[in-house]
Amino acid sequence: MRFRIDYVTTNLDNEPLFGGLESYAGLGEVRFNNPMGILFKANFKDLFEDYQMEGGIRIPTTFNGAEYFLFLDDKKSRLDKRYALYRRTNARNEGFIGNITIRSRTEILLGQYQVRYPLDVFTSIRAIATLRRDKFTYLASEPNSLNEPPTQDQRFGGRLEYVFDNSMAVDVNILNGTRYKIYTEFVKKFQIQLLDGLKFDLAQGFLGIVGFDARHYIPIGKHGVFAIRAAGATSFGSEKILYLLGGSDNWITPRFNNNIPLPSDENFAFQTTTPNLRGFDFNIRNGNSFALLNFEARLPIFKYLINRPIRSTFIRHFQVVGFFDMGTAWQGLSPFNRENPLNTIFIENPPTVFVKVNYFRDPIVMGYGVGLRTMLFGYFIRADYGWGVETKQVLKPKFHLALGMDF
Questions:
Q1: What are phi and psi of 343, to 5 degrees?
Q2: pTM higher than 0.85, yes or no?
Q3: What are the residue ranges spanned by the domains of the chain?
């Protein structure tokens, strides 16, 4: 059992370390909890790579919190195991009392145990057990801290996945083959109290999720690829997930569409963005269910033009992309229900006038455009220029700049 350092890295990063961490703050307020941050990460392996340990810390460029994580992988037998710990703190301004700023802090503490059983070379079954605590505290230096005690939510959950993957990376951001994942998940809220006697309560919220994500890659000539992605999910139970459709994956400067109303009659516990739908800001559609289609043609044009090895990574990995995105998010059984919040506006003039107005807005939105991809200073940069189509109207184009690989 001799370990070696596999790598130590420092880089800018905004990719979620764990999915589904964003708590829903309440009606009319959505918080993006993955700003750009400085990630310090180290990885250790034993000589036969049966065991692997990775830990790190990420400090956001806003310097209002930090993320810490630690993985331990046991791959000695056919049943792979992973143990994971994660902690995130985030401070923010809640408002003002006179000239005094009211500040709060949220803390997420998470533990996970994961097992993966391979059925064959390409197929596996994966199970994940999670224990989580969310804590909200007004900072002790603020004037209302004595009147507002800390609040916390405790949840445990389980997730089961069926995964098929025979895809092969032939180049950076260029794959061939197929991969898909079908999953189901449950999250149960509970309360345990150790002070003033033992108290354990399970009679609180329940969240269920069913979803899939499938991707297929078709070669174009010798170097290019046509990539297709289909994804969807629905949440149900006394608590739900609010899916916010739109935007680009790992968008560096995310923007939110405040013109689309947020649901007011559901108990949402968490929120998550569901890219890609380029040509729109986040929240072009929302709800407890979503469906999404993405099509991309990726062409590394200089490999077609230069018939010799290319030393420059900027030129070698330079890709021209054409894309088409289509999707929707909704509440209830159907996105075409007239009673969906998307199609409803409330006009109030108390104490006598309360008007509910229903009008049609096509639940399915589309985006198309072009983009560029390349490696710059060690980062894979994605730039997309897209036109959104909403209710048969082509909107003004939007520019999306993001980090990381495509789907």
A1: -105, 15
A2: yes
A3: 166-407
